[in-house]
Amino acid sequence: MKPLRIGFASLYAWRPHVEHMMFLARLVQQAGHAAVYLACDADLPACYTRELRDVRPDWMECLMCRAGGVRSYVGSGVSSIGALAPEGGADERAYLWAGSSAATLGRFAFAADYTSGEFDRQRKRLAPAIALTYGAAREWIRREQLDAVVLFNGRMDSTRAIFEAAHDAGIRVVTFERSWFGGGIQLLPDETCLGLKSIHGMVREWSSVPLSVAQARLAASYVASRLSGTNLKEWRAYNRDAQATGWPVAGGRRRILLLPGSLNEFWGEADWQSEWPEPTQAYDALTDHLGLGPQDLLLRCHPNWGERIGKNDGRHPERYYSDWARARGVRVISSREKVSTMALIAQCDAVVLASGTAALEAAAMGKQVIATAPSFYQEAGFRTDAGSPQRVAQVRLQVDVPPQELVAAQRQLRRMGLRFCYTMTHRLPQYVQHVRALSSSAYRYPPGADPQRLLEIIRTGRLQADDASRGSDESEEDEVLQRMQDGDWANLTTAAPDDGRDLPRVSRRWLLRPVDYIRDKMPLGDR
User: Fold this and answer.
1) Residue range 312-321, pLDDT digits in tens
2) Which are the contacts of 268, defined by CB distance < 8 A and separation ≥ 6?
3) What is the pTM for the complete model shown?
4) Omega before 16 cis (within 30°)?
5) What is the pLDDT of residues 187-203, one digit of tens each?
6) Contact, 523 vs 308, CB < 8 A?
7) How far, in Å, CA of 72 to CA of 41, rounded?
8) Please, what are the domains in the chain?
């Protein structure tokens, strides 16, 4: 078989993505194939990073991005968008592709936001750069005679342009991102970083497979780290300094916790499209169907909305959901209140969310998870589907079943939550044993990674579980499930092993290695 020519691109120098790209590129080269690169050398009239932040002038943002980019790792094989872009190149689809970035930048919350002048202006600012990148990527693919492209993200503005260019050229494109808990790398063939096809397939395949004792303990330790606020390897961790309180609403028949999320994170992504025109319509339908009053509900605004991401805060979603709740007499806990969301989940009868990750902790506590939109756990077996009016009509509260049935249902939720967690941490990510997170941005790379795992994804477009081992039967999970039922989370939080700081790094060219020491003192990516 002739050697492959594979193109790699990570336009934004956010940690750890360029480093991950170089790890993958070196695997390709180790197997005797060619790796070439596409870079932005301050070529774009606008980009996500510059639109996101206003701490430094644009020229300085570009300088910092170039200092951390691919050229600090390799001295040849790098093509520049500016040198490849055709004169006067344009693509009418660029405005459409700009929508996802524009939604995230503005942190828009509901349908009317997406018909606003502010949203339109943001798309128009990004569209010329996306069109420029698309034209350059098509030329790069043609000139380098690429067989495949391995690309960071594939969703945001110019990364989407490269994804679409590869797709239109008829070659495989594999996107990469950090994994949820940091170990390994998320690789999705022919999908952007928000694609759900491969994730659904993997979660569905392994949801019926029992874990071994060791796997169950490990999965439980990830949940325990989120509950204890010690999950330092996730990109964002919230509510760490929160205080546990009692349930703040008296007189209710039920305790239903509403945990709304941010629509902007998934806007325009077909796999995540909800059947509800407005998120709060699902709330209204559920409360009517279940006969719930305001005293049965509690709305907890996401702590993320109380933080600035770049130059924008979360005022849009907070106002949207708070206005809905207050108009109906529902108690609201604001994003900035230091109230423990985990303590509220522990006291509730059910959580209602769209696609938020708090579903994992809720399932681990045996709480019913009622979901109103698609999510990466919708095939995991612990979700009550309320994604349409027809499905809402089938919803029943788990807490209403007889006690013996309730105990069995709670145990099943915990079991399925454990299996889902293990799939998301050790089966879906690739190279888990060879890409080791020390923190959300610092990584080490134990030797021995097999290039064929990546090459098979490129050749076939299919993922295989990074860990395909399993337990003999459900009894191996039972000890851990009992400890979860007992709330023994402190002992389920495993002691941190040797952090691996002495293991190999993916290093820059030696004269540029001080860049890492400087960048370690700076904010990460979109923070």
Assistant:
1) 788 889 999 9
2) 99, 100, 103
3) 0.94
4) yes
5) 999 999 999 999 999 99
6) no
7) 12
8) 5-178+498-519 (3.40.50), 239-396 (3.40.50.2000)
